[in-house]
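Hey, resending since the last one bounced:
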Amino acid sequence: MKTSARWYSQRMKREATLVRWGTYGQPVLLFPTAGGDAEEVERFLMMKVLAPLIDAGKVKIYSVDSVAGQAMVQKEGSPGHRQWLLNQFHQYVRHEVVPAIRKDCNDEHLEVFSAGASIGAFHAAAVLCRFPDVFSKAICMSGTYDLRRFMSADRFGDDFFVSSPLHFVPTLAGPHLDKLRTRYVLIPSGEGRAEDISESWNLARVLGSKGVPNRVVSWGKQTPHDWMTWRDMLPLYLRELLPG
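The structure tokens again:
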């Protein structure tokens, strides 16, 4: 079953869409790639390969418009605006999307998995690291984790640094870090065309230095940065991480 909802976010100052596939199971927030909308994952046949898990009631897949990614691709506004929107996009996910998912699942304490590929992998890692109170596991496929080169900026302010795991995780301490250390980040990547697995290793080093459980998996030099790769990865790792 597919449903969608759209509302105006005061945080981001625009409308955005949330789409759901499935009726029962572990909720998974699947982020699009950089410029994608909430239905990109369906157009690229991800829902087809996830259908066995969805039909079996193992997962409910949710996706959102990649608002911050679209702004980066389109160079919307100033660099400072794009950094602000990146932070606000994560706040929208935490304070609007997660409550909507919990309401849909009739469980106000339900924990959510995050997942995504490319820039979507960045968001999947970022929301888990920023909000480990609600996100429990992340599947970050073929990720790009240092977004500074996409910002066309000479300066980076607090909006950027609080949104970038490579930059804020090293500063964490106390209850936030304690909770994050109970979470898990899975970081698969190919090493073929357009892939850069060094990005994955950089994220793993930052997480590992703070005691955050994680694992990098190389899919080898024949595996490209492409949807065919991610369609193989995501069902495999969801089955690995799902209970039972």
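Strands lie at 2-9, 14-21, 26-31, 59-64, 112-117, 135-141, 184-189, 214-218.

Sorry for the duplicate.
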